Structure prediction request, 123 residues.
Amino acid sequence: MSTSDTPQVSWKGIEAGARLVATDGHEIGRIEEVAGDVQADIFDGLVVSLARRHSGHHDRRYLAAERVRRIWPDRVEVDLDADEAARLPAYTEPKSITWRASEGGRVTDRLRSAFKDLFGRRG
Prediction:
């Protein structure tokens, strides 16, 4: 269990399933994923699972790194209360494109197609 005597860790040390703790000290959810670039040491945020009150269901939300106050492997304290956490944006998986060398066509055509798939058509 995390205590004031236990050393804090960097964002790279957050364990999957770590408790998400609100400003009042109550657990409001669990950490599902950490978003960042490990090689560049850039912490972007957390994908969290918030328990819906009295329903037993969980909502996946995105929590920006700026909202994180302190980190231990099994616990992350944030600057939100439960009501603010419930208003966090829903997490959606980033869209990805898979390229295969066996798919013919010119590289410029494939790049143009991938751009349209990712960002839609412009004006």
